[in-house]
Amino acid sequence: MTATAALHVAGPKTVSALGDLVEAYLRMIANERGASPHTLRAYARELHGFAAWLVERGGAPQVAQIEHTHIRAYLGALYERGLSKASAARALAAIRSWFKWLARNHYVEQNAASLVSTPRLPKHLPRVPSIEQMNRVVDSVRDDAASWPARDRAILELLYGCGIRNAELTGLNLDDIHWANEAILVRGKGQKQRYVPLGDAAADALRAYLPERDARLAAASEGKPVRTSALFVNLQLRGLARGGEARLTTRSVGRIVKRIAILRGLPADVHPHTLRHAFGTHLLEEGADLRAIQELLGHERLSTTQRYTQLTTAQLTEVYDRTHPRAR
User: Fold this and answer.
1) 12: Cα within 13 Å, side-chain hemisphere
2) 190/64 Cα distance (integer angstroms)
3) Catalytic annotation on 276?
């Protein structure tokens, strides 16, 4: 029996604490939806924060007594703490998802959070480096900008050349590289899997990196067989001696990308996701179909893909002039 089913059978009377319902929901999205560790941490932070706020303001009510006015007041409290509209919107999204689950399992009669409007966020497009800028960055990974040039070049090639997320990159294993098919098996959000093409530049970078990876592992083994399934390992192979994988972390990838990009003239706000934005935008600029880009990026909704791409007015005009019969 799943955690959700067990909790539903027990009934709301036996689970009075809000924190218990939060934990049950977190177990459900972990076990049944395959939520990532990052998502679990974020939802736990937002929902436990909301529950703690209810307690602080005079005792936590039963979950069925929470109304939309409580949620609006909580968002107001977040603003008073100096949080941005984006942060408040993330908190509301977590609360809405929790209440949707509560309503589905009959702990509440309706989703009170659905009556609360999402804070209006400023619309802005992410700054995306040009094709020339990205080529300059990826082609110039040397000792002056990288602690392990072969590895870091391969990282940039996969982030930009395949459009994968940071967490997808660090989660790659050796067996996920399908050389014969020129593709990579990527595990995305919600444990969804997809294949993305492995371009020639990325393949060459991996072929240059893998012998160095093997040599470092062999040197660290001191005659003992040491193996790790992780494709990208950290420089010092930390954790390997204790039976770990020495897998590179997303935080380390962020530092690697930022250091190289800044030294090559890109803005200081560059991060691994910037390369993913660039992947989608440059494909679109070069004429790729939006649906194909959606598949490559692993987006569930086409609207998400549209937010990841940029088209200037001139580009839109050029597409219109080239394709619409009344434009000629």
Assistant:
1) 13
2) 29
3) yes
Report the SS3 class of residue 231.
Answer: coil
CA of 300: how far to CAs of 176, 183, 188, 189, in Å?
22, 20, 11, 10
pLDDT digits (tens, 9 = 90+) for 239-286: 887 778 899 999 999 999 999 999 888 888 899 999 998 998 888 888
CA–CA gap between residue 204 and residue 25 (Å, rounded): 44
Options 70, 90, 151, 299, the catalytic residue: 299
Give the active site residue among 165, 216, 277, 282.
Answer: 165
Q: What is the pLDDT of residues 68-101, one digit of tens each?
A: 999 999 999 999 999 888 888 999 999 999 999 9
Separation between Cα atoms, residue 223 and residue 122, nearest integer Å: 58
Do 215 and 151 touch, CB atoms closer than 8 A? no
Assigned token pair, 79: 């603003």
Stated pTM of the model: 0.66
Whether 308 is catalytic is yes
Catalytic residue among 8, 85, 273, 307: 273
Select which of 153, 213, 276, 277 is catalytic.
276
The question of whether 271 is a catalytic residue gets the answer: no
Query: What is the spatial distance between Cα 75 and Cα 249, in angstroms, rounded to a whole number?
Result: 33
Would you call 165 a catalytic residue per the annotation?
yes
